[in-house]
Amino acid sequence: MQQERRQPGPGQPGPGTGRAALTAAAVMLALTFWGRGLALVLAGALAGPLPALRTALEQGQAEQPGGADSAASGDSGPASSTAPAPALDPAAIESYLVPLLTDADKPQDAGTVAETSYGQGSGEKYIACAAGTIKNNTSVPSAEVAAEIQNPLPFHIELNSPEPQVLIMHTHATECYRPAEGLWFLPGDGARTTDRAANMCAVGAVMADTLNAAGIHTLHDQSLNDYPSYTGSYGNSRAVVQQYLAQYPSIKVVLDVHRDAIEKEDGTRMAPVVEVNGRKAAQVMLICGCDNGSTVSLPNWRQNLRFAAAWEGAMEGMYPGFTRPVLFSYRFYNQDLTTGSLLIEIGTHGNNLNEALYAGQLAANALASLFTQAG
Length: 375
Description:
Aminopeptidase, nine-stranded mixed beta sheet
């Protein structure tokens, strides 16, 4: 079985973030004299590559009278949502689901998909966290990990706050899912698209709407950080997140929403699924990075790990079988930016889009429950 390897990038922020102090100072001055819109544009110009700068410009336009809708149209540039959505019935996933291809549309040379369900691990590498588990791929003793996750969340989410508490974004926004209902995929399907109605932005939208409906003020950035070039996508997304944190210091949690890719040597794509309330959902997996003292610099990894354990426990407790074990490993993924920064894999390229949309809602439901109880 082969699994897509994500590039964690350098452990240090690198030259693209060495200007963070200058950017923050400039943004503060801009906020004082020019207002938030122009301040965000300045942040993009100082710290961001092209996708981030486009986002900054469009958000700056959205701050101006008559510009609120400019960032949400078209596929040529990034789009973002900077206000809570209207109240949403968390059970109404049907309003998000899309028509899928049927077996009548299946070509003769279609690829094969196999469903599976990954269970919680056991053995010395696996640490229990409520109903879920953490797979410890580091040299940190498991007893130390188990002790750390008993501590409370390192941040407090203010319910029904006028200020944003959560940011959802996508380093690899163009990752997408099968458009077919059956267990097959179209020949030549690279599982990438710039269509925000079909890629990770669609899943992020469900998650953001669900959190906002629960009274957790959530922003959703739809920048295509991996387009037109996959190389440098983590640098692009880092700059985007820094812009949001500069404009909205109230943000406690940053969720980088991806999908995984798992396939067999013969090219069969694996679709991890679970049935929840009579409907198939893609299984999900959290990834939490760890500082290794040299190439991966994550001074707040313990705080992020607490968050990962709490969310994992909430998801698996509410929806048994929904999660794969948390991957705790020497990954960077820009998780130094807040003490609530995590990467979540919503299914794989073997899942269909509706399974992923439903999984996004379930994951957000569990997060809302966690934050509501903690609040």
